[in-house]
Amino acid sequence: MKNSSHLSDEALQSYLLKEIQDDSLIVEHLEACSKCQKRLEEYQVVIKNVQKIEPEGFTFDVSALVMNTVTVYEKRKSRRQEFAFWGVLILLVLGISFFSLPFLPAVFKLFFSGSGLITLLAIGVGLGVFLFLLTDIIRQNQVKEGKIFKNNLQPMS
Ligand SMILES: [Zn+2]
Fold first, then answer.
1. Is residue 4 in some structural domain?
2. Same domain, 47 and 101
3. 49 C-alpha to center of ligand 1: Å?
């Protein structure tokens, strides 16, 4: 077990946190492998720094795991909300088109025979509503992304 299989990140962390009862194999590998020794020193620094910040709190591993779960949950939640939003929107459009089907010929007549002003007005209103919805979606997404980003930074700072 010289260079064939290096110690895993989990093994190094558990060793540093003294979670392993029989660590003779790890010690043996560390004595023979400078690469893993260096990684161990890096973990030592990280764990020391985290323990300085949270003296009686969670260990590095646990808080990272919790933050990961929170992030995944937030992402999943916002994606579900997005699906629901588009679902409702499509249903609404389909419903409106279905019920307005009998009136479509009259609407078309208005567009093509009516004055250009009414056509412009209708297009303007449509564009306005579309832009309003679009900016609203983008703003909501930015708020969500901000929350997720903040959550990601917390355990590391
Ligand atoms: Zn190694």
1. no
2. no
3. 24
Q: Report the 10 Å Cβ neighbour count for 15.
A: 17
Burial environment of residue 143 by CB neighbours within 10 A (0 to 12, 13 to 18, 19 or more):
exposed
- CA–CA dist 143, 39 (Å, integer): 37
- Cα of 63 to ligand 1 centre, how many Å? 26
Q: 3-state class of 128 per DSSP? A: helix
Residue with tokens 């690469």: 35
38 CA → ligand 1 middle, Å = 9
- DSSP H stretches of helix in the chain: 9-16, 24-32, 34-53, 60-100, 104-113, 116-153
| Per-residue pLDDT tens over the stretch 84-138 | 888 888 998 888 888 777 777 776 676 666 667 777 788 888 999 999 898 888 8
Are 144 and 104 members of one domain?
A: yes
Domain extent, residue 108, equals: 62-153
